[in-house]
């Protein structure tokens, strides 16, 4: 019963340009995450580590980074199987053509024309097609079929599940029908950065997600890897948290925070020395608290690893509405007068809502993007 550690999209060498000085630290952290993955494999006594594409962020990465990855794998004593992905594809300049990858006993890399590797002691064949470019219309499962000589068959594939409107046709598409018809026990997917189950028919198939989050867009709470156990009763998939940094994107309505302490109080539960915060303020600000990007960044810097603040969608509330500035013949003028009448006629408890609606509508009519 083979036990596998499934990872992908580690993106060693990613520049993190948007993080400025802190980018260097996160780049170094990715190396540590890679080492931690291999330690996890040893601790969990897995038989084989699968890296389903994008181990490296690019084919041109610093030589010392390649040395590091190769040395870590060689020291790991667990077999490691690498599939070139889209960022580290197998083109003429591929990082995997380097001599450093040769002669490492426990390492197998899918290269041109090679589509499977037999691990006889595990009764397992690993299948895969190395991506040869950054984009392609071809499925990474094309031409792959089970090896009847081994009890178990697993494929690695780096590409996008073919979903209309969600995936580009030239992003190495894999269809759910292909997964169902693959004859594989498990398909180890890479390319999408959040763990997701795409099992179909008798075949289990998962994206494992990045072991360390790389952007604010990723909805996964923390990076992770998958432990995959295959036996006669089926395939079981468990996740293990490997990420140490958390990237949090927070949107807040400026009208709901009256002062700096209130804003800091709301963010306090997220604070941490390894938390990256992207704070986006929206809506209408009262005159007594006008959020300022530099000031907020400064205030939050101590509580977070990195802070980005965006106040472009905040609009200042107009406290003294000058009706003559909005003639009745204009849309804004008509709107203003109707809303003022409604606010006036509304019962006490609802008046504030009308007044706020008036301010929001007015800002929108003036072309402000406040939502
Ligand atoms: Mn990719």
Keywords:
17 strands; Purple Acid Phosphatase, chain A, domain 2; six-stranded mixed sheet; alpha/beta; 2 domains; elongated; binds manganese (II) ion; 371 residues; 7 helices
Summarize the model shown.
The chain has about 375 residues and is α/β, with parallel strands linked by helices. It has helices at about 20-45, 65-75, 175-180, 260-265, 295-300, 330-345, 350-365; strands at about 5, 50, 80, 105-110, 115-120, 125-130, 150-160, 160, 175, 185-190, 195, 205, 225-230, 235-240, 245-255, 270-285, 305-315.
Order of helices and strands: EHEHEEEEEEEHEEEEEEHEHEHH
Shape label? elongated
Number of helices: 7
Helical coverage, percent range: 10-25%
Task: Give the termini distance in whole angstroms.
Answer: 53 Å
Task: Report the portion of residues in β strands.
Answer: 25-35%
**What is the CATH homology-level superfamily of the largest domain?**
Metallo-dependent phosphatases
Give the distinct bound molecules.
Answer: manganese (II) ion
């Amino acid at each position: 019963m083979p036990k596998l550690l499934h990872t992908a999209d580690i993106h060693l060498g990613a520049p993190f340009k948007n993080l400025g000085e802190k980018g260097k630290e996160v780049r170094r952290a990715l190396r540590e995450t890679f080492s931690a993955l291999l330690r996890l494999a040893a601790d969990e006594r897995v038989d084989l580590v699968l890296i389903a594409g994008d181990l490296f962020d690019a084919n041109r990465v610093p030589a010392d980074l390649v040395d590091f990855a190769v040395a870590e794998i060689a020291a790991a004593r667990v077999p490691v199987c690498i599939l070139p992905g889209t960022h580290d594809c197998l083109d003429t300049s591929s990082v995997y053509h380097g001599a450093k990858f040769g002669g490492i006993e426990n390492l197998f890399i899918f290269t041109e024309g090679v589509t499977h590797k037999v691990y006889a002691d595990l009764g397992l064949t690993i299948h895969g097609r190395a991506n040869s470019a950054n984009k392609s219309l071809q499925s990474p499962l094309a031409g792959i079929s089970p090896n009847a000589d081994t009890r178990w068959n697993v494929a690695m594939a780096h590409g996008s599940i073919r979903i209309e409107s969600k995936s580009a046709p030239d992003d190495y598409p894999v269809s759910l029908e292909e997964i169902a018809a693959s004859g594989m026990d498990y398909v180890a997917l890479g390319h999408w950065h959040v763990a997701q189950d795409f099992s179909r028919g008798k075949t289990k198939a998962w994206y494992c997600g990045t072991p360390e989050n790389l952007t604010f867009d990723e909805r996964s709470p923390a990076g992770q890897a998958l432990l995959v156990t295959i036996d006669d009763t089926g395939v079981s998939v468990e996740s293990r948290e490997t990420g140490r940094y958390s990237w949090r994107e927070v949107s807040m309505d400026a009208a709901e925070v009256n002062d700096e302490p209130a804003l800091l109080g709301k963010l306090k539960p997220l604070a941490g020395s390894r938390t990256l915060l992207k704070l986006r303020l929206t809506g209408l600000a009262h005159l007594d608290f006008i959020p300022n990007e530099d000031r907020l960044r400064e205030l939050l810097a101590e509580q977070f690893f990195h802070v980005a603040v965006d106040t472009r969608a905040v609009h200042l509330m107009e406290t003294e509405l000058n009706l003559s500035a909005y003639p009745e013949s204009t849309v804004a003028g008509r709107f203003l007068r109707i809303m003022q009448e409604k606010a006036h006629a509304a019962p006490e408890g609802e008046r504030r809502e009308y007044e706020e609606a008036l301010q929001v509508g007015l800002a929108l009519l003036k072309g402000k993007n406040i939502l």
